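Reopening: structure tokens for the acetoacetyl-coenzyme A complex, inputs below.
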Amino acid sequence: MATATLDLQGLNFNLSEEHLAVQEAARDFAQNELLPGIVERDNEARFPAQQVKRMGELGFLGMMVSPDYGGGGMDTVSYVLAMEEISKIDASASVVMSVNNSLVCFGLEAYGTEEQKRTYLTRLATGETLGAFCLSEPEAGSDATSQATTAEDKGDYYLVNGTKNWITNGNSSGICLVIAQTDREKKHRGINCLIIEKGTPGFVVGKKEDKMGIRASDTHSLLFTDVHVPKANRIGDDGFGFKFAMSTLNGGRIGIAAQALGIAAGAYELALKYSQERKAFGKQIFDHQAIQFKLAEMATKIEAARLLVYKAARLKDEHKDYVQAAAMAKLFASDVAMWATTEAVQIHGGYGYVKEFHVERLMRDAKITQIYEGTSEIQKLVIARELVR
Ligand code: CAA
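Re-run output (same inputs, fresh job):
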């Protein structure tokens, strides 16, 4: 039964009872299980292992995967609703969730063989193990076609050598999707994506990054030295790897847009509450127009970001082209997140600058949403290309 309707460019947008139930479950989980200890985890850059285990038990790690492979069989709208609620509190936990759901599980389900799905997707969708998406390299960030990692064709296996950088779930994952160059002459059409399990000889977890934000998520370099990977672990046809990475990132960007939206909304909710508690010049600071104007502008921009995020999710659910919509949602929501969290710190004044009030963490967390899964500059490139396609 529909409980809220929004008609957006011909998209009939309904939030069902099921959507609202997912949203409430995510909100409860974030408040009750992610909020406790969050300042300490951030300070110590400690991976939320227990909380991620619970996310698996509650079905947040394979939300869109078919029940045939152990997933929740939900739509993308449900996923962004959950991402938003979890990101309001803990963006470190939500990036773990985002990478597992929309990069690794989605990529495997959309393009993997039946055997790959049975062997790997079932474990990822239930949270038995986590996935990592390994595209970035020391010299290949935005310029993702410049892969230095090689996957030499040795007949019935690939020999993988190279280094991947900035890998979310780098240490905590068990299954990695690794992009590597097989035939340099074919440029991006000579790139493959291989499924490589932790424990494979020659595969070593490297340095952990000491980050500004999302500090409790584990971001590592990964090192591959003469790693033997069976041909059966290649996703798609020979040379499909770059297309795989781009297609998967299109959907991943909806997840990060939802994360940015959640960070912005979380900071806004804290600022609104604080403005009604704190007094200055004899009245609540909310009653000062300077604060009201900030909150009004925050509420407006967050709502605009929400519409873009939901629109991208709905387009994906309706199997319509969502490449541009996803890029627009990420571009806009990440800018709103950076701006709104900065305003939330300002509204809190000196308290905003200390950790126990949470808004400084959200401000630090917001920054990465303008960088990972394609910088804001890359999103503009994607949007512009779609304008004339
Ligand atoms: N969707 C589907 N296919 C796409 C695509 C898209 N959005 N963008 C490009 N492609 C395809 C093209 O069609 C082309 O294929 P064909 O030649 O077969 O037609 C191929 O990819 C190469 O495209 P281009 O010639 O346009 O390549 P380019 O080098 O000029 O630009 C780019 C590509 C858009 C800049 C791309 O490199 C890019 O998106 N870079 C950003 C990479 C990125 O997002 N990295 C994030 C790291 S992952 C991460 O952050 C995860 C995490 O841990 C949180």
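The mean pLDDT is 96. DSSP finds eleven helices and eleven strands in the chain. Marking as resolved unless the reporter disagrees.
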